[in-house]
Amino acid sequence: MSAVTEPVRESADSLRALTPRQIVEELDRYIVGQAQAKRAVAIAMRNRWRRRQLPESMRADVAPKNILMIGSTGVGKTEIARRLARIGNAPFVKVEATKYTEVGYYGRDVESMVRELLDNSIGIVRERERRTVEEEARKQTTKRLLDLLIPRTTDSIAFAAGPGPDSGSDSESEPPSRERTRARMEAMLLAGELDQREVELSIEQKSSPVMVGGIGIEQMDFDMQGMLEKIMPKSTTKRRMPVSDARKVIFEQECERLLDNEKINSLAIELAENMGIIFVDEIDKVIASDSRGADVSRQGVQRDLLPIVEGTTVQTRQGYIRTDHILFVAAGAFHKNSPGDLMPELQGRFPIRVELDDLTEDDFARILTEPENSLVRQYQALLQADGLELEFTPDAIRELARFAWQVNQSSQNIGARRLYTILERVLEAYSFDAPDMPPGRVQIDARAVSERLAEITEDQDLSRFIL
Predict the structure, then answer these.
(1) Could you tell me if residue 128 is inside a domain?
(2) Kindly report the CA angle at 44 between 40 and 47, in degrees rounded to 5?
(3) What is the pLDDT of the chain when averaged over all its residues?
(4) What is the pLDDT of residue 271?
(5) Parallel, antiparallel, or unpaired: how do β-strands 211-212 and 215-216 relate?
(6) What is the pLDDT of residues 87-116, one digit of tens each?
(7) Helices in 216-281 by DSSP H: which ranges?
(8) H-type helices in 411-459, by residue range?
(9) DSSP character for 328?
(10) Can you tell me the distance from the alpha carbon of 31 to that of 79, in angstroms, rounded to the nearest whole number?
(11) For 30-56, what is each residue's pLDDT tens digit?
(12) Domain span at residue 433?
């Protein structure tokens, strides 16, 4: 049982060292403002570790406190949830509630979000398990490469070994032993001296997923794809390639051979059940409006979401997974409605509500410079690849922030995403001409920003299309 709980313990241990205050500080490295939302998610993550410390009899009854984020687009709702999952090294999936209202779906496939979460969890566990077998896989890779390089016949052995320090007139009459040859070849192989020699390698071709009625078998609840792969004959092809390329292919094959898929699936299910996070965006779009049409489907989506959020068992190809302790974070702008318009039962499953603030001009200035990989640093690094050293003056940052805030107020408010379009417009000429310019420093000041954007922002109709 201890082996099964190892991934959960590892994720919980990564949170043990982080108090809610430290989690907020970690989020502050990437996200500006929204202190209330950061506090709420930090408490929710800390509660996950606290639950793991409870007795088994009580642990099952402690349900996660799901969170409902209310705020305009581009204020950081998705980024907070995504960064939170990375901090806790937890499975995370983001889904759009609106995709379950499409014609032909009408909420019938809401369980797919749980399957996507499990797929993400399998990737995390597989990477962890892979690290434990890499050393053995490297040894097996070397052995297989030596088998390919040294044929079984004595003549071929001498030919593959090539002239060496012991070669001479007596080498043909008394060839070296196979063990000595392998040892010499292994030293050459590890030193990279044989990387350009070609070998013939058998590569197994995986069959492509079968489609039934427009649905891929890999998306079905049961593993029919795996069943067919066992029944159908495996197709292999022989390819000649350098040793350097063959080493990579063989290493991947050996890693796959050493991994225990059943163990990985079992570990991944438990990790997803106890540490998984599902972010449901655009939850306000499944609220019925005054008009007729898709309202029936929207109400149906809410009814289908309810058992997933409150706790149910979902069948997947890897096994059954319970959603009782998965943390759900829902988000929506709620411009034309309010959270109170959701089904009362669904409202009750999101006890923590957090309102995110609209971004101010000061927030835009901080977003440009404060995060660890801020937009300004990204553009500086991109143009540095062409030898152009980009420098933004403080007044240029303020001017960029002012333009972004102004355009958001006068047209559609898209939050921090406006900065992307503003910066692209300002730096368009440098991005295009940088490869042809001599290496040097380019300074962007407030005047340069104003010249590039003033004409566009003054023309309201034009700004809608360009900014």
Answers:
(1) no
(2) 140
(3) 79
(4) 92
(5) antiparallel
(6) 878 899 998 888 875 545 544 578 888 999
(7) 224-231, 243-258, 261-275
(8) 418-433, 446-458
(9) E
(10) 8
(11) 888 888 999 998 998 888 888 888 888
(12) 361-466
In terms of C-beta density within 10 A (0-12 exposed, 13-18 middle, 19 or more buried), how is residue 71 classed? buried
Q: Is 349 helix (H, G, I), strand (E, B) or coil?
A: coil
Give a yes or no: residue 428 inside a domain.
Answer: yes
Residues 6+ apart with CB under 8 A from 464: 411, 412
> Per the structure, how many domains does the chain have?
3
Residue partners of 309: CB distance under 8 A and separation at least 6 = 66, 323, 328, 346, 349, 350
- Kindly state the helix (H) or strand (E) to which residue 390 belongs, with its residue range: strand 388-392
Please report which confidence band the pLDDT of residue 171 belongs to, taking 50, 70 and 90 as the band edges: very low
Smallest CA-to-CA distance from 211 within 224, 199, 200 is with 224
Give the predicted TM-score (pTM) of the model. 0.76
Q: What is the mean pLDDT of residues 323-340?
A: 88
- The token pair that represents 230 in the structure block: 């066992």
Q: What is the pLDDT of residues 311-329, one digit of tens each?
A: 889 988 888 999 999 999 9
Domain finish residue from 355, 387, 405: 355
Rounded distance between C-alpha atoms, residue 98 and residue 287, angstroms? 10
Are 79 and 199 members of one domain?
A: no
